[in-house]
């Protein structure tokens, strides 16, 4: 292992994986605490992914999500997007260590509503890395670098994807911007979208109202669910939105995973992680 990278072995999905990361990255040092979330991700993906399916892993970090998803598409394709140079380097090493370098393609960039370039907070804790916005709390004091920004629609065209079954989005409050840049792709392929909903990052990094964001996402997708561990996914609608938001803010520490889609057939096939 070179370039300051270390290696760990983690069990994800009942299998031992070799994972690379920078020594100073606390996400890497505490990666075992994220394994349960990867199992939850894989459980949802397993309900929709065929063996030759196509996946977008947006906010791939050091590769835990790609490793969790790869066994589900042994003849398929995963495109992993990560803007942080350090995390992208670790991601490529993690994939190579597990023989996935040819099956998972890494795009080192951010995704948003429009193509361009923007300032990026390259956090020491890699899960906290995010694009910088005028509303970012303490943004003036954060370490910055410039990163390229693309859109889901342009990425799908660039890589010639002719199908897309599953999209994972975890971008520290900028999820709406990713969806804005994916309108054509979502209309064309109608994939299932697994997305982080975090009221703290929405307010801290985007100065966005979590209720307004949730209402916006529900307006974009005919079906939305919030995951509740081993319990069946909970359908979110106008009658349950405020109750879900209350639990999110008061009981769940502003950390929820939502599943947005165009039908709810996946729920019948879903099995708890």
Keywords:
273 residues; globular; alpha/beta; Rossmann fold
CA gyration radius, whole angstroms? 17 Å
The CATH homologous superfamily corresponds to Vaccinia Virus protein VP39
CATH class: Alpha Beta
Largest sheet: 8 strands, mixed
CA-based shape: globular
Number of E-type strands: 14
Which stretches are poorly predicted, pLDDT < 50 over at least 5 residues?
none
Structural classification = alpha/beta
* Helix content percent band: 25-40%
Strand order of the largest sheet: 5-4-3-10-11-14-12-13
Strand content: 25-35%
How many structural domains in the coordinates?
1
Total helices: the number is 11
**CATH-derived architecture:** 3-Layer(aba) Sandwich
Question: What is the CATH fold-level name?
Answer: Rossmann fold
Output the helix-strand order.
EEHHEHEHEEEEEHEHHEHHEEHEH
Please explain how this structure is put together:
The structure is a single chain. With 273 residues, the chain is an alpha/beta fold. The chain has a single domain, classed as Vaccinia Virus protein VP39 (Rossmann fold, 3-Layer(aba) Sandwich). It is built from 11 helices and 14 strands. The longest helix is centred in the middle third of the chain and has 13 residues, at 85-97. The protein starts with a strand and ends with a helix.
Outline of the structure:
The chain is α/β, with parallel strands linked by helices and 273 residues long. Helices cover 33% and strands 27% of the residues. The strands form three sheets. An eight-stranded mixed beta sheet has the order 5-4-3-10-11-14-12-13, sandwiched between helices. It has a four-stranded mixed beta sheet with strand order 6-9-7-8. A two-stranded antiparallel sheet has the order 1-2.
